[in-house]
């Protein structure tokens, strides 16, 4: 249906007398003029669930206004280096859900997890063996990893974005005097054998920010705001699906109750100890901590096929047979 061009346009749908029972159908009717089938489908489901939520909970005006004020405060808290909306998405489990849906993984590959609100785009590109942390109080850690395809072939020149907190559990962007000098983060590239390594510090548990609206919500829900010890990794390579993930230190506090639901069993790792041989090879101190992991990336083609297959399966489970899948995304089939 064509978009309306003015009050006299005959294409404008005629609304019914508005009631609690038919307001949803009326909104769908107006939105049905949308020319983008995916956007129209998303809005149809969003409006349906929002209206059902309001009817099911008998949402009061006071509660609705409190929700609007909360979301306004979340937006006002966001800055160039703090994304409070991502944090909100994290603490309700939406971030992990969306990542799992949009980046499906075959069993042989590395699972993804939450990006978190503290990634930045100003990390320096460092050479292998460099230190990403300027914190003298952290326990030294050698990170020695590889990146391969699902068939076991090493991947060279993969862009590996890494970031972690300091020994006090804070990211560099949480300090007012950070300026433009990034710390605890870097970009490393894998070598011809798919190997990359760098020096860091042993991750520590830390609380998500509690000084904003999301922290206040966590407190009202009676939940703790802590994350277990972990290090973030993001992989980019042409022809491969971007991987956003993290490694969690086995035995860390909050391993089984992460405030942002990021921990997956396959991403929990035990730290080893640097042997004299490795110490000489990588110019680090023997006896210091060692983090090893073999990352496996999935090609764009593999991901697209998985996304398509899982979308079809999900629509069938919901009883929505009259759907078509476009680029892995379902839209109503009206042909």
TrEMBL record:
The lineage of its organism: Eukaryota, Fungi, Dikarya, Ascomycota, Pezizomycotina. Its cofactor is Fe(3+). Keywords: Dioxygenase, Iron, Metal-binding, Oxidoreductase. GO terms for biological process: catechol-containing compound metabolic process. This is Aromatic compound dioxygenase. GO terms for molecular function: catechol 1,2-dioxygenase activity; ferric iron binding. InterPro entries: Catechol_dOase_N, Intradiol_dOase_C, Intradiol_dOase_core, Intradiol_RC_Dioxygenase. The keyword Nucleus does not apply. It comes from Dothidotthia symphoricarpi CBS 119687. Residues 129-297 form the Intradiol ring-cleavage dioxygenases domain. The keyword Oxidoreductase applies. Belongs to the intradiol ring-cleavage dioxygenase family. Residues 36-108 form the Catechol dioxygenase N-terminal domain.
